[in-house]
Amino acid sequence: MNAKTALKAILALSIAGMLFSGYLSYSELFAGACAVGGCSNVGSVPACVYGFVMYLVVFVLSLLGLMEKKESAPVGI
User: Fold this and answer.
1) Cα-flanking dihedrals φ and ψ of residue 45, to 5°?
2) pLDDT tens digit string along 17-26?
3) What residues does each domain of the chain span?
4) What is the mean pLDDT of the chain?
């Protein structure tokens, strides 16, 4: 597996994670109900919000990795 294929797989998994944690965050923050199991808070913020932020960071980093152009090695190194 090359780096581009791995980044595409990570991108797809991060999209799936954002959709799931986004749904949980929406239902807990705006609908006022837990969609799955019991609700847990870290501080005063629901734990699913932290998951959404984490998946968003992974999404952005994998997208930047896919958009990066291949540069040639500097001369003399």
Assistant:
1) -110, 135
2) 999 999 999 9
3) 3-67
4) 86
21 neighbors 52 (Cβ within 8 angstroms) = yes
What angle is formed at CA 14 by the lines to CA 18 and CA 43, rounded to 5 degrees?
50
Cβ contact 25:48 at 8 Å: yes
> pTM score, two decimals?
0.79
Question: What proportion of the chain, given as a percentage, has pLDDT over 90?
Answer: 45
Q: State which H helix or E strand residue 67 sits in.
A: helix 47-67
Tell me the per-residue pLDDT of 37-71, one tens digit each, with 9 for 90 and over: 777 888 888 888 999 999 999 999 999 998 876 66
Q: Which two tokens stand for residue 22?
A: 């986004």
Closest alpha carbon to 24 in 45, 49, 53, 44: 49
What single letter denotes the amino acid at residue 45? V
* Cβ contact 6:66 at 8 Å: no
